[in-house]
Amino acid sequence: MNMVEKTGKTVEDAVKAALAVLGVSRDQVDVEVLEESKSSILGLFGGRDAKVRVTVKEVPAEEPSVPEPVAEIPEEKPEPAKGEVPEEPVQEIKAPADRDAERQAVAAAAKTFLEEVFRAMGMDLLIEKFISRKDEEIILKIHGDGIGVLIGKHGQTLDALQYLTNLAGNKGHRNWHRIILDAENYRERRRETLERLAKNLADRVKRTRKKAMLEPMNPYERKIVHMSLQYDPAVTTYSEGEEPYRKVVIDLK
């Protein structure tokens, strides 16, 4: 992959997200701003994300130099003394990065960020922190009154807040740790709704023999639809369109 389009609250956020996907540094890419961001209230409501296209610069290939042939001289190893056990070469072992400790730090920073946002909004909410080592995810569950305003239509506000929390929590850390926000078990209820919807639409496609197109969804929700129908022998699913208006299509195989 040498080109990717990303969105973010600011152009810089969108560029950082693209660099994380491409795995390159800022000086190795060309950036094209497709849409400027529009200011919103607390970075959550009524705004428009910036959109950029980031392309990895082409590096001209260099002519390989041909090394002059060098005669190999076999290395002489001293014979071990009689009765002496030959010493095994010592291999350097590099200690792995302490991802668990870093994940704990990211979780703490994310929780602090949310508390500051809720304080600015005048909302008194409880935040529970969970760390899944199996899925390598940080899960922050939010409880309290007026939680509906944080979810928004089809979870759009919750997704926006989750995006900002990921940026704030992972800032300054070497590894990227995925943070999931949930509000009063909305994620699980949304999953069940999407699975039922996908199966109902698949039945309609089989009956009418006409493809069905769902509303625009984020990548996480599109994945739920794809997985819920992956073992259905009669239908297939695919996505079409550009973010953030990309949709899942259900069609006959």
Features:
253 residues, alpha+beta, Defensin A-like, GMP Synthetase, Chain A, domain 3, Ribosomal Protein S8, Chain: A, domain 1, 3 domains, 3-stranded antiparallel β-sheet, 3-stranded mixed β-sheet, 6 helices, chaperone, RNA-binding protein KhpB, RNA binding
- CATH topology of the largest domain, what is it called? GMP Synthetase, Chain A, domain 3
User: What fraction strand?
Assistant: 15-25%
Number of helical segments? 6
Quaternary status of these chains? single chain
- Overall shape: it is globular
For the record, what is the CATH homologous superfamily label of the largest domain? Answer: K homology (KH) domain
Give helix % range.
Answer: 25-40%
What is the architecture of the largest domain at the second tier of CATH?
2-Layer Sandwich
- Write the H/E string, N to C: EHEEHEEHHEHEHEE
Q: Would you tell me the overall average pLDDT?
A: 80
- N→C terminal distance: 29 Å
CATH class of the largest domain: Alpha Beta
Q: Strand order across the biggest sheet? A: 1-3-2
